[in-house]
Amino acid sequence: MSNLSRRLFIAGGAVTAALLAACTAERTADYYGDTGGGAGALIGVSMPTKNLERWSRDGENLKRMLEELGYTVELQFADNKVEQQNSQIQTMLNKSPAVIVVGAIDGSALGPVLQSAAGLGIKVIAYDRLIRDTEAVDYYVTFDNYNVGAMQGQYIVDALELDTASGPFNFEPFAGSPDDNNARFFFEGAWDVLSPYIESGKLVCPSGKLPASVDDWQSIGIQAWSNTTAQAEMENRLNSFYSTTKRVDVILSPNDAIALGIGQALASAGYGDDNWPVLTGQDADQANVANIVKGRQSMTVFKDTRLLGERCATMVDQLARGEEVEVNDTESYDNGQLVVPSYLIDPVTVNADNVQEVLVDSGYYTAAEVGL
């Protein structure tokens, strides 16, 4: 079975995981057993920014879960500033935490400060973004990021019926922040699905913003996943390569923040109900889910951060107690210095047909919050 086929097969289990979220959200310290051992220790949590909904939500949820286990938690957000994140982590180290959880801004910029952590015997868990170019990272907890992109690509294939439609379809691709290791996995997953249709001419890119290969993905990356940068880029493509008679049919957006900016550019250019293009996303941010309900975004890949937080809390607890840490992947994530033992969680595709089932019935949002 190919790597792509294996990952798409695994994705089927993601629906079950999402539907179980209503139950897992209710779990407290009882889920993890007796709160002896490492309970009461200090845990540092460093998140990249509070300005993106998913990171704010992730940080607060993880803090709550760890406190329910009896740990003292220092949570810091770094405003997407690498120097600030380094400084915050160093301040945490000075307080002798048992474990530090890091959602990195730049996965290659934390080596020296994390080497200090290793020298002090402080364990490090990379949270959702791989920390690169250092041996001073012990574990990685994330979603199956390659599969996120593959799911976006497969949605495009199905929505446009690329296997049977004659085409061609005007296609505009975007990629994530060039300094985020996950962004390559997202793009690679989508590329592996879509490249046969690009090569056959069913998908054409009028702007020419089509990477020569997966390795060239950063050429279409949006720094810091900025919705304003994405909006400006989409406006430029629409103004330069499209017209009232030549319309874009499909846009690969790697996440919801970028999709918001693209959507604003489309609306300003006069796109509406009769010609809104297929538009992908990721993270199930509230505004984007509301747009899916309104027909202003086609899909998002839901990564249930409650499950991610629970798994991370379990790993922290196992480390603090001196127990064996459970992982399910020891091959995929080479950070340039070592293959980091990882725990991968499967995501799920959300569109207008299953918003209620996956996001509302599970308690992630209320119906009113997403416009149902």
Show the helix and strand layout.
Elements: H1 3-19, H2 21-24, E1 42-47, H3 53-68, E2 72-77, H4 82-93, E3 99-102, H5 111-119, E4 123-127, E5 139-143, H6 145-160, E6 169-173, H7 181-200, E7 203-204, H8 227-241, E8 250-252, H9 256-268, E9 278-279, H10 286-294, E10 300-302, H11 305-321, E11 342-345, E12 348-350, H12 355-360
Parallel strand pairs: 1-2, 1-3, 3-4, 4-5, 5-11, 6-7, 6-8, 8-9
Antiparallel strand pairs: 10-12
Helix pairs in contact: 1-6, 3-11, 4-5, 6-7, 8-9
Question: How does this structure look, described?
Answer:
With 372 residues, the protein is α/β, with parallel strands linked by helices. It has two domains: 42-137 and 304-345, Response regulator (Rossmann fold, 3-Layer(aba) Sandwich), CATH 3.40.50; 145-303 and 352-359 and 364-369, Rossmann fold (3-Layer(aba) Sandwich), CATH 3.40.50. The chain is built from twelve helices and twelve strands. It has helices at 3-19, 21-24, 53-68, 82-93, 111-119, 145-160, 181-200, 227-241, 256-268, 286-294, 305-321, 355-360; strands at residues 42-47, 72-77, 99-102, 123-127, 139-143, 169-173, 203-204, 250-252, 278-279, 300-302, 342-345, 348-350. It has a six-stranded parallel β-sheet, with helices on both faces. Strands 7-6-8-9 form a four-stranded parallel β-sheet, with helices on one face. Helix 3 crosses helix 11 and helix 8 packs across helix 9. The chain is globular and about 65 Å long. Mean pLDDT is 90; it is low at 1-37.
